[in-house]
Design goal:
The complex is a heterodimer of chains A (60) and B (726). Chain A is mainly α and 60 residues long. Chain A is 65% helix and 0% strand. The N and C termini of chain A lie far apart (52 Å). The chains are: A mainly alpha (60), B alpha/beta (726).
Chain lengths: 60, 726
Amino acid sequence: MINWIAANKANLIIGIILLGIVAAIVVNLVKKLRRGGSTCAYCADADCCAHKEGRAETSN
Amino acid sequence: MITAALAGNPNSGKTTLFNALTGANQRVGNWPGVTVDKKEGWVKKDRSLRIIDLPGIYSLSPYTLEEVISRDFLLDEKPDVVINLVDASNIERNLYLTTQILDMGIPTVIALNMMDVVRKAGDRIDTKKLSQSLGCPVVEISALKGEGLEDLLREAAAAAGQKKAPFERRFSAPVEQALEKIGALIAGAVPEERRRWYSIKFFEQDAKAAEKTGLAPEALGAIDKIIKEGEKALDDASASIITGESYDYITGITSACIKKSRKGLSASDKIDRVVTNKWLALPIFAAVMIFVYYISVTTIGAIVTDFTNDTLFGSWIMEPLAGWFEEIGTAGWLASLIVDGIIGGVGAVLGFVPQMLVLFLMLSLLEDVGYMARVAFIMDRIFRRFGLSGKTFIPLLISSGCGVPGVMASRTIESERDRRLTVMTTCFVPCGAKTPIVAMIAGAVFGGVWWVAPSAYFVGLGAVIISGLILKKTRPFAGKAAPFVMELPSYHVPAMGNVLRSMGERGWSFIKRAGTIILMASIVVWFFSSFGFVPAEDGGGTSFAMVEEMDESMLAVAGTKVAVIFRPLGFGFWQATVASIMGLVAKEEVVGVFGVLFGVEGDALGLVEDGDFGALSPIAAPFTMLTAYSFLVFNLLCAPCFAAMGAIRREMNSGKWTAFAISYMCVLAYAAALMFYQFGILIAGAGFSLGSVVAIAVLALIIWLLVKPAWTEKKAAAPLAAEAAR
């Protein structure tokens, strides 16, 4: 087991980092969707859009 | 806590003031209608003061959605004070709303904005006299420069302590008598401090205000009698009487408080004589848009994009990273996932950020200068001929950044038919996310010629006009286009802070999306394009494994089956099919998919720029110029991304209408790409085929839809009338 870990340590470290990034993105997207409750969470203009209700409330 | 409502005419600078007071980053635009919902924030220096930014309105009559939102807020939420932003350079028209707000009896402070424009014109406003005449504080401010804001907040806090505004304007004797009688009838049914306002609204026959009181039919009958007496005495309709007397009152105030120094045309008027000229307006608009796209996609933007693609992602990131993975003994699949999948996909999209930033900068400049408001005016003349209103152009304008706020901006259109039509067509305009597709095709296949990018914009506008012509002739959309009344703001030197902020925020949002949605989608595309069912090593059956050739992958197998649909359009190969479908996740993903599937991460652009066609990257290999442009047309016009589809669903408020809108876009995109490709190969001498027949039939159908008589109520009623006559 230890030998296997030693032989694959590069894969394991990179894999864990990658998994962590993917998990962070998924959590972030889910959070955004729940908070926004709208499609604006995906929108490229969401941060500067005047149309999303209550945006200023969250930014202040 | 004090609640202050920020109210004012469209384009008077409310959002700029809101941002200056609260430190928020709400989008500011030099055209009316930027704000369609109310927003709230707290003053950054005094957290006990809450500011509500109401949509821009000309009056408190409930004719438009913005007016309803604003009026309901002022009536139901009872703010402690109203900060009424008045454009000093247009004071007479702005004061109409002021008098209506003051009629409500809410303590009010007038913020006189754009005084610099007034001073520059040599005019003078006596603010002390104005304050005395209106019975409320008047503070000179500059929302843009942040001047006078502390005085404004101090006055607002002081005014909030009062229960009722001391102002009460007087109408002519017959109107005052009527208002007194109505006031007596509605006493008890409305709050005492709003009694006069409700009396005026009853006299104006404002049905929505009357509805709110829930008055008994007998009282309503008595009020009706009083109104008729007033109308008889003044020989006019009651609503006109109130409007006319309001303007008489305002003229009286302004003639006493304002001294105008100059007559004749202002600099804005002189510029408008050229840019809105009947014959010159359109060529100027076309030249401006060609210049904007040429600069952003072909010249400055392309230079920086080439550096990003070739040097940054190619030489500085991918090559060293691939070598390092090999050095430390990373598994081939993991290195491939990161280098080819993630960096290839995300990098291909990020490579176009410089072009997008330049495009956003140019569009923001045009908006801030005030030119885009003129374009809406110019387009109204053209759109009206095709049954569309100039109001449609504002959503189209916003859509050039992103389709989602563009679709949402259509809610300012009162007519439901026009609103639906606008929602259906607004996504045809190339949004920021479609720009990388345009840049990729223009650079990789067309060798960076100047006309491809602007032509994409005009393909979108053409689709809007043709759709307007076709759909307006059908029953669900028939009818005259709604009138479009818009104030043209004065031209001004763009506020670079606003312009750069708008550009930076749009660009940053794009980058963030590349790091989230595009990254996830790239992983999915890499997985399905790297794995598949291959012959088992023992020789029997198949096994699931990483494929040697991408053509054996699951994505290739599935994509090849679907690709048949696109064969008549010229791009019936699986990579283009997958890219078009993945474009529904986010339009930039079309480029991301090419990056992953062809492993070029945008290097093609540099090769094309260098004229190194022998080593042309695989991205251009499956395309001819004809098929590439057909692919571009299809992806520009077909269903937008899921986010925009969600916005369409919300604005349509109907599953059926949403399905119709999405289907219409897809069918139109397919028809346009089909005709383009089939006629293209016919002209190129490929001979007549079944595809040519279908393309001719589609063209004939479109021509018939364009020229057929429009549906009218009269025509529809004719057979029934004939039946009845028999």
